[in-house]
Design brief:
Blueprint lengths: L8 H6 L15 H11 L2 H14 L6 H14 L2 H29 L3 H13 L16 H9 L15 H12 L6 H15 L8 H11 L3 H14 L4 H11 L3 H25 L4 H27 L3 H14 L8 H12 L2 H11 L8 H16 L4 H7 L3 H16 L5 H8 L3 H9 L1
Helix pairs in contact: 10-11, 11-12, 12-13, 13-14, 14-15, 15-16, 16-17, 17-18, 18-20
Length: about 425
Amino acid sequence: MADCDGLSEAGTAAASPPAPAPGLSPPLGWRERLRAGLAGTGASLWFVAGLGVLYALRVPLRLCENLAAVTVFLNSLTPKFYVALTGTSSLISGLIFIFEWWYFHKHGTSFIEQVSVSHLRPLMGGTESSISEPGSSSSNSESETSRQNLSECKVWRNPLNLFRGAEYRRYTWVTGKEPLTYYDMNLSAQDHQTFFTCDTDFLRPSDTVMQKAWRERNPPARIKAAYQALELNNDCATAYVLLAEEEATTILDAERLFKQALKAGETIYRRSQQCQHQSPQHEAQLRRDTNVLVYIKRRLAMCARKLGRIKEAVKIMRDLMKEFPPLTMLNIHENLLESLLELQAYADVQAVLAKYDDISLPKSAAICYTAALLKTRTVSDKFSPETASRRGLSTAEINAVEAIHRAVEFNPHVPKVYNLLTAITLTGCATLLGNA
């Protein structure tokens, strides 16, 4: 249900945004050159310098005497001490493990990992993800800064995910296998709590119930909680979202529930807009209600595409991208690419790629493979292996082969049929390039 679901989930999770391509840099000053030189010397220079400082301070610090005292102390220890030390460390480790298990069970994430990423990583020179908040008016420079400061993540969301009830459950009925792993469900739970909850949920009883529903691991329990939320508030948009995702067994049923969610979500969003400046809590509530509204419209567009109304889906997605340009966390442009490819509107696809296939933005399998398909399409009609073997590859053919290699290297877990369709038109080119 969240952006981490998908039959190609493992491949998407394995890929991480590649590093930006190197480019020209302005001349460095003497301070920058000195700093770069010190950084390039490596840890060995600092290790030698540390040994030199210790040798110089050996007399004031009484290193020899202290070392002898430590040696006497270690020799006087009995085996009972080491047994007690091992038992104590095991007890502390066990308590930490129990706390981690309890925290993960309650919040769906690791406490140690959360603290290290949120607090320790910035102190050690890491970058924080600074995606612009939805509903906020940010300038172009702030948006560009946010793009440059996007941190690499272990798992990148899959915006082409299917509906749990209408599609994943049908897969289970046909094959008898569960397409989603526990890891997928955990990622979904984290996304749900990020997108659909906030600190003011206690002010509305229905939101309190839904906050617990997003943490439930059992689908029937989540569906039951959604109905409880609707009994408390018939305009609970997130409850309709959960039912559309998990209870609806067809796309038509999902679309019907999403339309009810849209009606309730627009009402709540307008109400939050009027109160957003009253307090920070109201601003957080507006961000949450904006996330809900954008998610509903995006899913309605996906329903329209799956039901054959592709032009309607494209219009909804374009309107969303214009109305909420800072909200890039849902990767709506990748859903737009999917719809434009189905319409065979290749010029529009190229325009979207020109905007989002940029080194300052995180890459994705959808962008890489779409770029490879377009470049392959431009040269496949006139390509002849015999001619290419005589004259060599042209610039466009080389670019197409490199795009295919780039896509497969970025995410080799995309279904093999997709890879075959992408590369089959340039089999001769790939062979020539491999032999070069």
